[in-house]
Structure prediction request, 334 residues.
Amino acid sequence: MNPPVRHAVPPTFDVHLHDDWRMRALVDEVRTGLTAAPKQLTPRWLYDDRGSELFDRITRLPEYYPTEAEREILLARSAEIAELTGADTLIELGSGTSDKTRALLDAFDATGRLRRFVPFDVSERTLRDAATTLSERHPGLHVHGVVGDFHEHLHALPDDGVPVLAFLGSTIGNFYPHERARFFDEVASWMSDDAWFLLGVDLVKPVDRLMAAYNDPAGVTAEFTLNLLDVLNRELAADFDPSGFEHVGMWDPNHTRVDLRLRSLREQHVSIIGADVEVDFGEGEELQVEISTKFTRDQIAGELADAGIAVTECWTDTAGDVAVLLASKSTVGT
Prediction:
């Protein structure tokens, strides 16, 4: 008897962000971050359409190792992850086009157990486009898109069945320590006894390799960070002069992280009309736009353990540049 033909299932969506959410969040952050000392903004504002294009170019640079290193792990280990977890639901935080999880989806689908994929992203347009493509690529799979911010809407994720929550791309390294602790606590609160957490992290390595990755000779990373000023000019009617700033990527050994900053080349006064803010920059003053923390295996396992999450498997690429950890809810103390 021939197996039944599986047909594409139309995707469904939950939208937790109002139309004006992004603008309100940007205004609030500019008012607090650009009047603080030191000045700083979170990385989310780097990823407008132009920023996303530039980041895609960054991932293809020979100096930028994380993307291909993580892809190597997923291609080698996805079938093992699918068998270890026995999952029927795969959830991806910061899914974008869901390119990172292609190997996972194929492996989970091959088990015959996968019934639902939940891509979670802040961009509704990107999410809808990706969900439609995935529904056609995986007939019979229910694609349930969630439009939200993972700092605010983790509670909105489904936790029934046997879910795997994937947070890949070393994005956790962009969180400050207190943000990581809060995030891991929220993940632990969401996790049922049958849930799994799949986390991608960038590992500590020689500083010269890190500096090459974040100060590429082609200048693409510099374009990427400087594009933030164009975003502020466009979105908030600011009058930043991008030629008055330079990209700086530096290593912070005390926190084992790379700091990406924009350094003012002269004294400047900036009006940000949309946020009703006037900002002064001194010559040499820096605006921190992103951090990228590098971990040891013991460090990240310890941070997860503090939240009640236990690492069961840890895989690295051949070069030992990045790691993918599989974790479950800890039973210690229960």
Remarks:
- The two ends are 49 Å apart (CA to CA).
- Residues 32-87+162-329 form a domain with the Rossmann fold fold (CATH 3.40.50).
- The CA atoms of residues 25 and 262 lie 21 Å apart.
- The longest helix spans residues 66-85.
